[in-house]
Design a protein that fits this description.
mainly alpha, 4 helices
């Protein structure tokens, strides 16, 4: 079942998408390298499962591929850091039941 997003969440997503698009299309390579938070361009071949996941996420969220990949990498880095610090990732369902998430 698709997650219901508020108008505010959609507005934030659209703003982030516009900013990302503007940065990648208007800044020269020299400008990008000279400023903090410079954009790095990657060319990635996705396996079928990952490509399907991107398509499903695009349909559910309306986000661009670049935004989905940026978010996925940010989440992965956060989870990896937490696990390395000895913490656990736990999902709580609507009934209040917790499940420990094991991530490769």
């Amino acid at each position: 079942m698709p997650a219901v997003r508020t108008a505010e969440e959609r507005e934030v997503d659209q703003k982030m998408s516009r900013e990302t698009s503007q940065e990648t299309s208007t800044a020269s390579a020299t400008e990008k390298a000279a400023r903090p938070g410079a954009v790095e361009r990657l060319n990635v071949a996705l396996v079928a499962e990952a490509a399907d996941a991107v398509a499903k996420l695009q349909e559910r969220t309306g986000l661009k591929k670049v935004d989905l990949v940026n978010r996925a990498l940010s989440i992965y880095e956060f989870i990896d850091a937490e696990l390395r610090a000895g913490n656990k990732v736990i999902i709580r369902d609507p009934d209040g039941v917790d499940q420990i998430v094991k991530i490769f």
